[in-house]
Automatic annotation (TrEMBL), chain A:
Molecular function terms, GO-annotated: phospholipid transporter activity
Transmembrane segments annotated in the record for this chain: 47-70, 147-172, 197-217, 237-258
Presence of keyword Signal: no
Transmembrane helix as UniProt keyword: yes
Record organism: Actinokineospora alba
Protein name: Phospholipid/cholesterol/gamma-HCH transport system permease protein
One Gene Ontology term, aspect cellular component: ATP-binding cassette (ABC) transporter complex
Pfam hit, one: MlaE
Listed InterPro entries: Permease_MalE (IPR030802)
Keywords: Membrane, Transmembrane, Transmembrane helix
TrEMBL record, chain B:
Protein name in UniProt: ABC transporter ATP-binding protein
SUPFAM superfamilies per UniProt: P-loop containing nucleoside triphosphate hydrolases
GO molecular function: ATP binding
Species: Actinokineospora xionganensis
InterPro entries: AAA+_ATPase, ABC_transporter-like_ATP-bd, ABC_transporter-like_CS, P-loop_NTPase
Amino acid sequence: MTTRTAPANFPGAGALRETGRLFALGLDVVVNVFRRPFQTREFIQQCWFIASVTILPTALVAIPFGAIVALQLGTLIVQLGAQSFTGAASVLAIIQQAAPLVTALLVAGAGGSAVCADIGSRTIREEIDAMEVLGVSPIQRLVVPRVLACMLVAVLLNGLVSVVGVMGGYFFNVVLQGGTPGAYLASFSALAQLPDLWISELKALIFGFIAGVVASYRGLNPKGGPKGVGDAVNQSVVITFLLLFFVNFVLTAVYLTVVPAKGS
Amino acid sequence: MGAEVVIEGLTKSFGKQAIWRDVTLTLPPGEVSVMLGPSGTGKSVFLKSMIGLLKPDRGKCVINGVDIVTCSEAKLYETRKLFGVLFQDGALFGSMNLFDNVAFPLREHTKKSEAEIKRIVFEKLELTGLQGAEKKLPGEISGGMRKRAGLARALVLDPEIILCDEPDSGLDPVRTAYLSQLLIDLNAQIDATILIVTHNINLARTVPDNLGMLFRKELVMFGPREVLLTSDEPVVEQFLNGRRLGPIGMSEEKDAAQMAREQAHADAGHSDGSSEEDVRGVVPQIEPTPGMPERAGVRRRKDRVMRILNTLPHAAQEGIIESLTDEERARYGVHSHMVPAAAQSRPRLDQPTQQMAPVQPSPRPRPVEDPPRGFQGDLSDPQVARLPDTTWKPPGGAS
């Protein structure tokens, strides 16, 4: 905040600066979550909105996703001669990887883009400036409820996707691949354990946070008028996707190291 | 009384492009100031820098002892509550109706009951002529109404400093006149410091106490209205008269060839786009509506201006003295040199004004605070400098 020195100019400085600002906004959001008064109304409205645009697409994506996991694993596992573990493998794949990712992609694609467009149009209409001048922090007032809504909806949707995905896997395995229902269900607990569910929900929570923060950041900094808002929405979705897969990789690697696999 | 705003050496650039450099000025407390400038000279950027929405590269903007440029976020939000800002398009919240928009600052910052909020909001809506429209959404009303609603919202917290970004753009001349009157009445009622950014000449001539102009990335001048209104500076002259002939071009500056060509056209009898008469000169200022309290800022300004009178250019001095009543002239011990009775002081007058005639250029347009050397009147130095009942203090200190 002190008098700014000349901005550094080396290749990639712009990218670093943007990253830094994005991170700073993330920190601001975390700090402002604890600032009273909490915008309960805005939070509930945003939750309702994000949920309403994501529930149906998520469920529709979850069924075929569960199916392809079941089909792929089913054929592979038959070749390995471990048919009885089909259920266990697909549960692990769906709960740990597929559910949080599908959830986050939809929260970012449907919810985040709407959040970004909303905040972006407010920015170019100078509403954000007006709010700041009136002494109200737009981060506390607008961004925090949206980010929290993204997180909550992501966690809840994650549960939905897990259930729908597993059911889809069951259906395809039992009906189309001729698997035995008993073996499928019984093997659930053979490999899967409770921490798998926790990491799944934690991932969803973090992905929701990233989707919300990136969408808000791009919305608060559109470049050049109404067209800039369109570009910002586009970028916010792309940036979120890139971050999601990277963070997912890191979390998975950490989880696999920290939590021992069942039975080992 | 409104807060004083002291701006020193403010410089802003976007990337490599400098917007303006070393802007130094003081908005005297409780007075109305207007910042003129051709389109695209960064007037709006200047306003936004003043309230910390944009970070200037360097410089200071001190309000009540708080430097907006370097202070902490919390202090900044605290200081902003002193401001009422009217944005160019009103900047209303699109999802709320007019009532909620105007009530927003009250609900955020005060613990007033809903009934009281309602009373204040309706009062401000009536003030801006919007009664009956409180249920409308910003998208459903005209640009002029949005602007007025934005003003109503800027006013609800009784701000000490009011900033208006082009209050006249998109308004017809009649509504602009009403708005000008409204601003003057407001100033009379709450004694707020007002800064209006505009390129409306009529507003600039009749409303402010102080006038400034931004051009070519610099503050051309800032001072009592008479100084700019009587200025011989080519930019000011061209701008006030709305002519094509002069240093301001379609893009911000023009080259010598273009200027010569235009001069040739003008010499050949082609109109230069202005009306024939020269609109420069001091015209009477708008007074508060009868029944309103007297503007305290006017009296403070008079004391202040009389004190720096001898540092002002000759034409401005004449304009100021002309505008005084006989009573005031007697009080300040000056008299107009237009009237024959004063002819005897004429020869003495020319010599000192000659050396003061060049307008002080930016970056230090603020009149230099020399000890008054005595006006060319009949009184000795200390008597001119000693002002009866003045509350004005030299600018520079915080608040």
